[in-house]
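Propose amino acids for all 152 sites.
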């Protein structure tokens, strides 16, 4: 079990100032990944997305910090818009002789799908800038009108 404990660097757990058992448990709650790897902190819901109905089109905004445009895949099939992002990162640290002192590899993949019907898929536009994916989804002329249902 202790081979799987994610120690976040040298925390001085063996020093005399840290002699309570709770210090070890605090270290066990640390992330396996470095905070510089954005996908490491994504939870079960992966990344944050906002969808706004703007009358004749939908505006989707997805936060994908630390990603490059090449890391992102966007598909619209059978009424489902799917956003997928993959990130591979490698940090190699070598000494003067080329021997590894530390070598870490992080891989992360996230995907979310949304059912959005009545879309003119030939005119979907997407732009990725500053870690935010903006997607404009124009509605078709024959899109069904939504009816607000009162909740009692």
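Proposal:
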């Amino acid at each position: 079990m202790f081979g799987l404990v994610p120690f976040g660097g040298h925390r001085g757990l063996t020093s005399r100032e840290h002699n309570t058992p709770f210090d070890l448990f605090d270290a066990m709650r640390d992330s396996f990944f470095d905070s510089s790897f954005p996908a490491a902190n994504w939870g079960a819901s992966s990344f944050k997305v906002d969808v706004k109905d703007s009358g004749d089109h939908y505006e989707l905004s997805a936060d994908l910090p630390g990603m490059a445009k090449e890391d992102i895949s966007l598909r619209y099939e059978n009424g489902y818009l799917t956003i997928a992002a993959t990130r591979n990162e490698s940090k190699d640290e070598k000494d003067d002789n080329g021997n590894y002192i530390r070598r870490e590899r992080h891989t992360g993949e996230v995907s979310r799908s949304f059912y959005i019907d009545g879309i003119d898929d030939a005119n979907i536009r997407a732009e990725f800038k500053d870690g935010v994916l903006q997607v404009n989804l124009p509605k078709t002329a024959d899109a069904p009108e939504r009816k607000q249902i009162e909740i009692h």
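Residues 1-16, 27-44 have pLDDT under 50 and may be disordered. The radius of gyration is 23 Å.
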